[in-house]
Amino acid sequence: MRKFWTLYSKEMLESLRSYRLVWIPVVFIILGIMQPLTTYYLPDILKASGDMPPGMLEGYEMPGAAAVMAQALGQYGTIGMLVLALAAMNSLAGERSSGSAELLMVKPIAPAVIIFAKWAAHLTVLFIALGLGAAAAGYYTVQLMGSLSVSDCLAAAGLYSLWLLSAVSLTLLFSAFMRGPAAAFLALLSAAGMSLLYSLLPSDFDWLPAALPDLSAGQLTEGSVAWFGPVLSAVLLILACIAGASMLMGRNKLPD
Amino acid sequence: MDKVNWGLIWPLVALQALLAIIGLFSLAKAEQVRGPKWLWVLILLFGNLLGSIAYFTIGRKES
């Protein structure tokens, strides 16, 4: 356990030195407040951007607070996930190619502990980023649109964080045996593949982690959702990723 | 909606500026980046959010 904390604080120091701990939360806050702002000022933005046929704005109806909050969280599924995967891609691949993985592996530390410390560090960055981002989005939505239920927002952000964490864990797994950019690409591709399966056949694949963004939106707009299947499969996927990465790390494949 | 509420808009501007400043700071301290440094200065200054994201994800070399 002490080894874990030592490695974990080393990882957190690393994410501070690489500015990850700062720039990812700032990006998440910007994404979070941009959505309510652009939704609220959309008519003005359209007017300012020039030739609008008269009467076009008459049909524009301001969406409700819950819908805007759901859209704001939806931003994290695209740019947010890309940012997290790109930031996590070198965590194992970089250490393998720079040689610090070998230095670490000769110490009497189980590979699982190394992987788990790295994963926990990424989890911390994700929680800080999503927590601050969702709080900022919620504040702006309440200021501009109307009231929101705090518990629904927390549940929705929690469901969304699980989906993002699945993508980060996949990146970590692929990064254990591939070069960084390839790992991020493959992780995003598998996340996109799951989303595609879910959107094509929602009734067959509603247990996939890819259903989590929809659940998160449903939590906000409807108030209660059947979360058990996707949450279970996401947790299993994340555990499988950590276990797989530990095994691959234990075999210590040399960098290419 | 006639009056724009600047109290809600300036944090957005300030955060974007903060991101660009952190980027420039890290660029100044970095020994090596992918591509020429002056290009990243331009991207950070004029690239807004996506420019800063591009610098932190693609431009920085982690060593």
UniProtKB/TrEMBL annotation, chain A:
Q: Which Pfam families match?
A: ABC2_membrane_2
Its transmembrane ranges are 21-42, 62-88, 109-142, 154-175, 182-201, 225-248
Keyword Ribosomal protein found: no
Keyword vocabulary terms for this entry:
Membrane, Transmembrane, Transmembrane helix
Domain of life per record? Bacteria
Endpoints of the signal sequence? none
Say if the entry is tagged with keyword Chloroplast.
Answer: no
Q: What is this protein called?
A: Transmembrane protein YxlG
> Which organism is the protein's source?
Paenibacillus auburnensis
Gene that encodes the chain: yxlG
UniProtKB/TrEMBL annotation, chain B:
User: Any idea where the Cardiolipin synthase N-terminal domain is?
Assistant: 19-60
Membrane topology is: Multi-pass membrane protein
Highest taxon of source: Bacteria
Keyword flag Membrane: yes
Keyword tags: Cell membrane, Membrane, Transmembrane, Transmembrane helix
Principal place of residence: membrane
Spans through the membrane: 6-27, 39-58
Q: Which InterPro entries match?
A: CLS_N
Q: Where in the cell is it found?
A: Cell membrane
Q: What is this protein called?
A: Negative regulatory protein YxlE
Name the source organism: Paenibacillus auburnensis
Encoding gene, per UniProt annotation: yxlE
